[in-house]
Amino acid sequence: MQVQAAVLRDPAGPYAIEDVELADPAADEVLVRVVGAGMCHTDVLPRTGLIAPPPVITGHEGAGVVEAVGADVTGVQVGDHVVLSFDSCGVCANCRADQPAYCDTFMARNLFGRNLDGSTPVTGADGAPVSARWFGQSSFATHCLATARNVVVVDKRLPLDQLGPLGCGIQTGAGSILCAMDVQPGTSLVVFGAGAVGLAAVMAGRVAGATTIIAVDLQPHRRDLALELGATHALDGADPGIVAAIQEITGGGAKYAFDTTGIPAVIKNGLLSLKMTGVMGLVGVQQGDLVLDGGSWIGKTLINILEGSAKPQEFIPRMIALWQDGRFPFDRLIETYPMSRINEAEQSSLAGGTVKPVLIPGS
User: Fold this and answer.
1) Average pLDDT of the chain to the nearest whole number
2) 350 Cβ contact list (under 8 Å, min separation 6)
3) pLDDT at residue 297 greater than cutoff 90
4) Could you check whether the bond before residue 338 is cis, i.e. omega within 30 degrees of 0?
5) pLDDT cut 70: percent of the chain above it
6) What CA dihedral angle connects 96, 97, 102 and 103, to 10 degrees?
7) Residue 57's closest CA among 342, 338, 336, 284?
8) CB of 100 within 8 A of CB of 152?
9) Cβ of 332: how many Cβ atoms within 10 Å?
10) Looking at residues 79-89, what average pLDDT do you find?
11) How far apart are alpha carbons 6 and 343 in whole angstroms?
12) Distance (Å, rounded) from C-alpha 130 to C-alpha 19?
């Protein structure tokens, strides 16, 4: 079928809205009409040329309506409203242990932009293949294919166009706090980077019952938003005395630290901000080698986290329930853009403006 998609053809160039041909769903796939798709910083990775090189359709925080299902699909039917998340195999040891974010084939299924056999379901107007299995969905399009394992059925009464970010960025931030790090009530948490992932972590810290929540960011408006969403303190990441300030606020060091920046100097500050027995979680793409001296991490735990260590079929409904209870206002991070303004949305996000762009296909 012919669909409209935002195609990245040049790593240094803009997305272009194109008419492309999308294959019918395979036996284990579902066809989804995309209602909204969040933009995540991970969508920038194909611009590096190292993974999923162009031409590629990115987008991995889709939400939409199921229009067709393959013959082998169970648990999902035509007309269902779904949130799309990362793909996993369902049969490896980690998947069987309810740890799909650490699936043996996670990288190949999510970061290569192709099916495991190297094929892709999309061709361009010239008949040439376009990579369209980014995180098992490639949802910067009016329609996309996914599998039954990476769709989560949600209540049809919910605002579907707002739910896509729950599939990755918001899940990563909140899941890291509530699942991977298991932040405990009455403890202290410092979050480095107050973008969508970091602000989700701030909100989740409040849900977890942390009594001291410190947000660190370079942007004043993001620090202000962090305070509105549950942070007890907000510090300027450019302050050379940031470690001492955190230690003073926490009475000798935080119990938990969470880095969303990937910047080695920031990660080291996070470790130095922890007391012994503290735990630090890392997400995102590391921006260089992390070199540690022996004293910076004695008695501390460092965890590199994928997708918040969450199981989407359980954690996405949990986040929705928290939002319905008024305890997890993730919608405050969202600004919608028509898909035709995808390049503007990307630039605003990268410049620290829009916290979480959501693109509306067909507009």
Assistant:
1) 96
2) 41, 44
3) no
4) no
5) 100
6) -10
7) 342
8) no
9) 12
10) 98
11) 10
12) 12
d(CA 313, CA 31): 18
d(CA 205, CA 214): 10
DSSP state at residue 13: S
Residue 31 DSSP symbol: E
The one-letter code for the residue type at 10 is: D
Secondary structure class of 363 (helix, strand, coil): coil
Max Cα-Cα span within the chain: 63
Q: Are strands 254-259 and 188-192 parallel, antiparallel or unpaired?
A: parallel
In whole angstroms, what is the distance from residue 246 CA to residue 272 CA?
10
User: Which are the contacts of 251, defined by CB distance < 8 A and separation ≥ 6?
Assistant: none
**pLDDT category of residue 49 using cuts at 50, 70 and 90:** confident
For every residue of 125-178, which 3-state class applies, written as one string? CCCCEEECCHHHCCCCECEEEEEHHHEEEECCCCCHHHCHHHHCHHHHHHHHHH
User: Where are the extended beta strands (E) located within the chain?
Assistant: 2-8, 15-22, 29-38, 61-69, 81-84, 122-123, 129-130, 143-147, 151-154, 188-192, 212-217, 233-236, 254-259, 274-282, 301-304, 334-338, 356-360
Assigned fold of 170-307: Rossmann fold (3.40.50)
**Token pair belonging to 35:** 């209602």
**Mean pLDDT across the stretch 255-279?**
96
Cα 54 to Cα 46: distance, rounded to the nearest angstrom: 7
Domain ranges of the chain: 2-167+329-360, 170-307
Tell me the C-alpha distance between 282 and 302, whole Å: 8
The confidence band for 295, taking pLDDT boundaries of 50, 70 and 90, is: confident
Q: For 349, how many CA atoms within 13 A lie in the half-sphere containing its CB? A: 26
Is residue 25 within 8 Å of 69, Cβ to Cβ? yes
Q: Are 259 and 176 in contact (CB under 8 A)?
A: no
CATH 1.10.3720.10 fits 2-167+329-360, yes or no: no
Q: What is the mean pLDDT of residues 200-208?
A: 98
| DSSP structure class, residue 165 | G
- CA gap 101, 91 in Å, rounded: 13
pLDDT, average across residues 4-18: 97
Strand partners, 282: 259, 304
Cα–Cα distance, 361 to 251 (Å, whole number): 49
Residue 294 has pLDDT above 90, yes or no: no
